[in-house]
Amino acid sequence: MARNKIGLVTDSLEEYMAKLEELGGATAMKKGAEAALKASKQYVNPLIEQAMNKLPAGGKYSTGDTKKSIDDSMDIEWSGLTGEIKIGFDFSKSGMKSIYLMYGTQLNGTPRMKPVTGLKAAIYGNKTKKAIAELQGQALSDTIREIMEG
Known about the structure:
By secondary structure, the protein is of the alpha+beta class. It has 6 helices and 5 strands.
C-alpha cells in the first residue's frame, strides 16, 4: 500500500531553487530541499500524535500500536533531483488500523466507527498545507542565507 509523502509546496519554489542553483548547483538545491522536507515532517508528526490522543471510545480498545507506528524517520528518498519524505503511519506496523482511524468504518453504508477527530486534517488539511508551505519557504531561505554567509 502506498505511503503518504510530502514534497516541496512552498510559494516561490522556483525562485528559491534558482537562487540555490546559482549559489551551489545541485548540491545546494538538495541541501535546501532536505531542510524544507525535514521541517515539514517535524511540524506534521506532533499534529498526528496529538490527534491520536482523541481515539474513538476514549482509547478503550487501543493497544498503542498504531500510535507507535507513526513514521519518525527523517530519511529523504531521492529520484534524480526529486526528493520526498514519508509521513504518517508505517503500514507494515499498523496495517489498516491507521486507515480506519483516519476515515472511520462503515458496514453496508451504515457508519460503525467515527474517524479520529483531526487525524486526516493533521496530514491533509488546508491549515497544515499552509503551515508547511511557510515552513518550507523559511527553511529554503535559511539555507540560502547559510550558504551565502559561508
